[in-house]
Specification:
CATH class of the largest domain: Alpha Beta
Order of helices and strands: EEEEEHEEEEEEHEEEEEEHEEHHH
Strand order of the largest sheet: 5-6-3-10-13-8
Radius of gyration: 19 Å
Strand content: 35-45%
Number of helices: 6
CATH topology of the largest domain: Double-stranded beta-helix
Helix content: 10-25%
Distance between the termini: 41 Å
Structural class: alpha+beta
């Protein structure tokens, strides 16, 4: 199997398949492929061993179905293009060396990937994290590709070292990282600072990948150039985005978008 990532602003991942190679992705993710590539859509992929595995994968941001790409009749090529400006990261996944990624970060992986819901490790995250803190857990034994928005900044955290991050900028981290959600300190900061009520707290040891661009921020940036109907759709899809105020701050925090 040969791979190549082309481009910097909107990169494209090209994967050359040989006999016996298999790539797993969510339906509709691929951009183009040669005629020698065969697609097989099935719910029983990416480590799902039953109904609950399929549902857990769907809740994490993946789909109920996954698509497998093979090239049984000869060499083939399948390509995946980034959906937003950013980076495509290649990571090696092994038992005990998994990752948690933002819920729409999974692009594709080789056979052996296990994709499921990344439950938070504390009661605070479970209650206050909201939809935006349900992350994908990437485990198994495979090579995987993850899409992160904008520029990518990495930190290697030592044991006990802590990083507080606006939730939308959490792109990916190793599963050795302790992830929690805490209230922003200070009443004035919480209600008048405009940064939401909650921050993600990442504690080492482990590695963290932060993304400079989030989809909600991108939606707000282009909203003034849309028609009224489209602007209403953006506001409905991302609570608290344009309305602002205390209510918007609360809702925006829950959805990881109020920045």
């Amino acid at each position: 199997m040969k791979t190549k990532i082309t481009g910097e602003t909107l990169p494209v991942l090209e994967i050359g398949l040989e006999a016996g190679d298999k790539i797993v992705a969510e339906p509709g993710e691929f951009s183009w492929m040669t005629q020698t590539v065969v697609m097989n859509t099935t719910p029983m992929a990416a480590g799902a061993k039953g109904l609950f595995g399929v549902i857990g994968r769907a809740l994490s941001g993946g789909g109920l179905f996954m698509t497998e790409f093979t090239a049984p009749a000869g060499p083939g090529l399948v390509a995946f293009a980034a959906k937003v400006p950013g980076r495509i990261m290649e990571v090696s996944v092994a038992p005990g060396q998994g990752y948690l990624i933002h819920r729409h970060g999974f692009l594709c992986a080789t056979h052996g990937v296990e994709l499921g819901i990344g439950f938070q490790r504390s009661l605070g995250a479970g209650i206050f994290g909201g939809d935006g803190f349900i992350m994908q857990r990437l485990t198994g034994s495979c090579t995987a590709w993850v899409e992160l928005g904008g520029e990518v900044i990495t930190y290697d955290l030592a044991p006990g070292e802590t990083l507080s991050v606006h939730p939308g900028h959490v792109g990916m981290f190793t599963e050795s990282i302790n992830f929690d959600v805490t209230l922003l300190p200070g009443i004035g900061n919480m209600f008048f600072g405009g940064d939401g009520l909650f921050v993600a707290r990442l504690m080492g040891p482990g590695k963290v990948w932060l993304q400079s661009l989030t989809l909600p921020n991108l939606a707000h940036a282009i909203a003034p150039y849309l028609g009224k109907a489209e602007q209403q759709n953006v506001q409905q899809a991302i609570p608290g985005g344009i309305a602002g105020g205390v209510a918007g701050s609360v809702l925006g925090s829950l959805f990881g978008n109020n920045r």
